[in-house]
Amino acid sequence: MFSEKFLKRLIKTNGVTVLTGAGISAESGVPTFRGKDGLWKNRDVMQMATQQTLKSDPELFWEFYNWRRELLKTVKPNLGHYALVDLEKQFYDFNLITQNVDNLHFIAGNTKVLELHGNISKTICNECGHEAEENEDVSGAVPVCSQCGGVMRPGVVLFGESLPQKALSDAQEAAATCEVFFSIGTSAVVEPAASLPYIAKGNGAYLIEINTERTPLSEHADEVIIGKAGETLPYLIMALDRY
Question: How far apart are CA 83 and CA 135, in angstroms?
């Protein structure tokens, strides 16, 4: 499955960076909201997850996000998530960049995670930016900030918003300085995350793609593994254990 060339390169490397997308979470049952999954109560989720909806109809906005949070309570990390925890333990210079907001990497046990689109389990004020503490009550139909009285929102990037600058710059640095870069379960077309593999490749990293189908990135990768992360990544950990 994984070439000897790649395994020998990986075992000698000092820096590993991983980018994950919706594909790895889809294996755990998280909806991708694409195609037939792109509707909630006959509404386009891309319209629901916006500042416009939050301000014009906060009750509807929060009904949608509370539904998503309840859905995620039943979702567990899969073997792909746990394999990335094992991978982190093997490399001192390890960075995991994710486009997912479901918190599954942290639940699995990864600690070096850069969340490009935020984390749906967090609640922040849409006005002053205050992040609710664990003991704060944010269970109302429309949670209100304890500091300024403003309407709260999930700690995620809404459609039309820019990515958090620090997370993006840290991700770009991780891509530019690694020796091996994994692109896992992502379509490789949504910017600016789609540029990260090319940054790594341009700086000499060995680029490996793991996905259920080929993407625009495939022709640029040093190695392409067609398959699910939950099935392929455990094999990688077992292969490394043999070295």
Answer: 32
